[in-house]
Design a protein that fits this description.
This protein is α/β, with parallel strands linked by helices. Helix content is 26%, strand content 23%. It has helices at residues 37-43, 49-56, 80-96, 119-131, 149-153, 169-184, 213-224, 258-273, 286-295, 320-328, 340-349, 427-430, 451-454, and strands at residues 7-15, 32-35, 62-71, 102-106, 137-141, 157-160, 190-195, 229-235, 249-255, 301-305, 333-338, 354-359, 371-381, 384-386, 397-399, 403-408, 412-417, 441-444, 460-464. Strands 12-13-16-17-11-18-10-19 form an 8-stranded mixed sheet. Strands 2-3-1-4-5-6 form a 6-stranded mixed sheet, with helices on both faces. Strands 7-9-8 form a 3-stranded antiparallel sheet. Helix 2 (49-56) packs parallel to helix 6 (169-184), helix 3 packs parallel to helix 4 (119-131) and helix 7 (213-224) packs antiparallel against helix 8 (258-273). The relative contact order is 0.13.
């Protein structure tokens, strides 16, 4: 430990889930930056990856030094300028504040820049080049990572979230950090083995609380019980990143035994491969889903708007379900929509006013057209809300930007936001005076991430095969980089 009393671990990272089909580029100005103690203030009491890494520093013999963390919501490809500026600053901070006994990387695993399809792998390679071959580097990734050999080759230990919705970022990062500490002390010698069978699991089959993912996660946990295995992980992959490694991956980390690591990784991969027919989608289209919801007793029935999955990089302004509800004459209907133009109109009109305007469908032509609505402006808020509970991703503080609540003559309540904001916590609605429990139908723009928020109040949940940049119908997309053959695109794929 370089003769110091406490080992020094650098904490840094960049998190971005890149939907390469989104037309909204991830430019530098779209990122939020946390430097030094800002990381502690923002994430220290959260359930995020950064919180898990910071927790390691609570030990008297470990000093975790927060350097910088950059993040933005899932949108399109990271511009070259943004990538180089952000990574350049990360590396400069790492260089200037050393020496280090170890490094903790807070990454996502599905980042794509204009020049680097494997952006996370590029970050790990540059970090490794800077610190040299002997400094242990730990990395924690999202369950939706498209994991590459480059990421694993340039790290000492990697861990991935094991739950979707992501309720365990903090313990997975803590686990990673603990193994880095043990490596520095010479207690373990981690060896990693990665298997990437040619299979994609559809986004609507990725809930770890039910099959088929429940069995995949159980196999991962079984592998961890092997005496020679330190940890194991499975990544579901992210099908909206058009990259060569798109798909599932399986990682095993052993204590000095390459054969054991490889065997465990291959066992998990083979078991999942044999289940591949269960990874294919079967969900109703919008009109059918709405009719199913209205036919059910009680409520609320939560409709997961898969095509406008904000957590997957969508526009957040899809009007497909709203237009269908309007056309079918369905009331008692609640949903959020990203539309800063409509929010500005509501603010100008004022609380209590009646207003007619076109809302949603303004980002692109993949998420429906603007819908004409008439209604009263019920509330206007600053869009700030907080949830200290371990919800999806572990985040605690949220900002939807200036927000307006519109009650329409169709019997619809619309939460209009001026920033893209997912439906991962009911506090989003409560902060604006909305009680989602009182509605027959609640639209949640997502697939799995809204479950911790809405499953407790839902009479049922229906996943909707809606169009959009995150649609569950993968035949909608034209891929240029993905490997082939790849199941289910090519049913003759072999492993």
């Amino acid at each position: 430990m370089n003769g110091r009393d406490a080992m020094r671990l650098a904490l840094l990272g960049m998190s971005h889930e890149t939907n390469t089909f989104s037309r909204v580029r991830a430019t530098y100005d779209r990122f939020s930056f946390y430097r030094g103690q800002d990381i502690v203030r923002q994430f220290g009491e959260s359930h995020t990856t950064n919180a898990g890494f910071l927790e390691i520093g609570a030990r008297p013999d470990v000093d975790v030094v927060p350097l910088m963390f950059a993040s933005t919501g899932p949108i399109g490809t990271i511009s070259s300028d943004a990538f180089e500026r952000i990574v350049g600053e990360l590396l400069q901070l790492l260089r200037d504040n050393g020496p280090w006994d170890g490094v903790l990387l807070s990454l996502h695993g599905a980042a794509v820049s204009e020049e680097h399809p494997d952006a996370d792998g590029e970050i790990t390679a540059r970090v490794r080049d800077l610190v040299g071959p002997d400094i242990p580097v730990g990395m924690t990734l999202d369950l939706h990572a498209n994991v590459t050999q480059k990421m694993i080759a340039n790290t000492t230990v990697a861990t991935f979230y094991r739950s979707n919705p992501h309720l365990d970022p903090r313990p997975r990062a803590l686990e990673c950090g603990e193994m880095i500490v043990r490596t520095i002390r010479g207690e373990i010698r981690p060896i990693q083995a990665l298997e990437t069978p040619p299979v994609v699991i559809n986004i609507v089959k990725q809930f770890t609380g039910e099959e088929p993912m429940a069995s995949v996660i159980r196999d991962c946990e079984t592998s961890i019980q092997r005496p020679e295995i330190l940890t194991a992980s499975v990544a579901e992959g992210y099908p909206y990143s058009d990259v060569e490694e798109m798909g599932m991956s399986f990682l095993a980390v052993s204590d000095g035994d390459e054969t054991a690591a490889r065997g465990a990784a291959r066992w998990m991969a083979r078991r999942a491969w044999d289940m591949r027919e269960q990874f294919v989608v079967d969900t109703p289209p919008p009109d059918e889903a709405l009719r199913q919801a209205m036919a059910e007793d009680g409520g609320p029935v939560v409709l997961m708007d898969v095509g406008d999955n904000i957590g997957g990089g969508s526009s957040a302004d899809s009007t497909v379900l709203l237009a269908a509800a309007q056309r079918l004459g369905i009331g008692s209907f609640l949903q959020s929509l990203y539309d800063p133009e409509a929010v500005a109109r509501c603010v100008s009109s004022g609380i209590g006013s009646e207003i007619s305007l076109d809302i949603g469908g303004k980002t692109d032509d993949m998420h429906g057209s603007p819908v004409r609505v008439t209604g009263g402006v019920r509330a206007i808020t600053d869009g700030l809300y907080e949830d200290p509970n371990p919800i999806h991703g572990g985040w605690r503080y949220y900002d939807g930007g200036t927000t307006a609540v519109l009650e329409t003559t169709d019997g619809h309540t619309l939460l209009l936001t001026s920033e893209r904001s997912g439906n991962t916590t009911r506090e989003q609605m409560y902060s604006a005076g909305i009680m989602p429990e009182r509605y027959k139908i609640v639209v949640a723009k997502g697939v799995v991430s809204p479950r911790p928020a809405y499953q407790p109040i839902a009479s049922s949940i229906i996943l909707v095969n809606s169009p959009g940049v995150t649609t569950s119908d993968l035949s909608f997309f034209t891929y240029h980089r993905r490997r082939a053959p790849l199941y289910p695109f090519e049913e003759d794929a072999a492993y």
